[in-house]
Structure formats: C-alpha cells, structure tokens
Amino acid sequence: MNVWYASCPPCRVEAPDLQAIHEEYADQGVAFIGINLRDGAGPAQAFEENYGITYPSIPDQQSEIMYKLRGVVAPNAVPTTLVLDHEGRVAGRISGAIDPSILRAMLDGVLEEAAS
User: Fold this and answer.
1) I need a labelling partner for 63 at 20 to 30 A (CA). Which of 3, 26, 37, 57 fits?
2) pTM above 0.90, yes or no
3) Which long-range contacts link 91-98 to residues 24+ away (Cβ below 8 Å)?
4) How far is CA 15 from the centre of its chain?
C-alpha cells in the first residue's frame, strides 16, 4: 500500500521502482494499491499514465483511509509504503521514498513467512 499524490517530488522518484516491483512480484500473489491523498481524477490519471502505473489507486481526498491508518502512518508522511502480511497486518513500513532493495527484502520476508 503506497500513500502518494502527483505533485509530491519523492512520489515521482519512487513511481518507476514501485511499478517495476509490482510487475516483478505479481506472479507471487503480491498486490499493490495506491492511496492518493490530494489529486482529482485528472492529475491522478496523468501521473499514472506518465509513470506507467498499472496497479489501482484509491482516492482519499477526505482522508478517510488515512484516518483508519492513524498510529500506523503519520498524517504528514507522504510517501509512505506499507507492506501487509497475508492476514492484513502491517509487516513493514517505509516513510519517504522507497529503496527498492529494502522493499524487496520486506516482500521476500512476508512471502517466506507465508510459505512456512
């Protein structure tokens, strides 16, 4: 789960890496979803087209999703990426732009735990 908005500079930096990792892990059952905090449909769609994002994003302009994530995601931490395990529990969190190797290690850990 990645919290983002189109004019966020680190969100733009991490977008290609998130898409690449999404494609890399899709056949292992890993699902990606974006939570867009600020953008209307036009800017959000332009961002997704520009960066080739194919996983879905949910608009959250009223911060309803963010409210439910209080205590897990700081209200001003954008971007933030959460890795959830198979039971929906937070298994990892990255505040700020992702480091691809760290995100892969988190995903691998969740997949290994599920296989045990």
Assistant:
1) 26
2) yes
3) 96/10, 97/10, 97/11, 97/13, 97/14, 98/14, 98/17, 98/18
4) 9
Contact 90, 82 (CB under 8 A): yes
Residue ranges in the chain whose pLDDT is less than 50: none
Residue-level pLDDT at 36: 96
Q: Which residues contact 78 (CB under 8 A, 6 or more apart)?
A: 3, 4, 5, 8, 10, 11, 37
Find all residues with CB under 8 Å of 16, minimum gap 6, and list them: 51, 52
Tell me what pLDDT residue 75 has: 64
**pLDDT (tens digit per residue) in 69-87:** 888 776 678 999 999 999 9
Cβ neighbourhood burial of 78 (10 Å; 0-12, 13-18, 19+): buried
Locus of tokens 């449909």? 41
If you ran DSSP here, which 8-state letter would residue 58 be given?
E
Q: Decide if 89 contacts 9 (C-beta within 8 A).
A: no
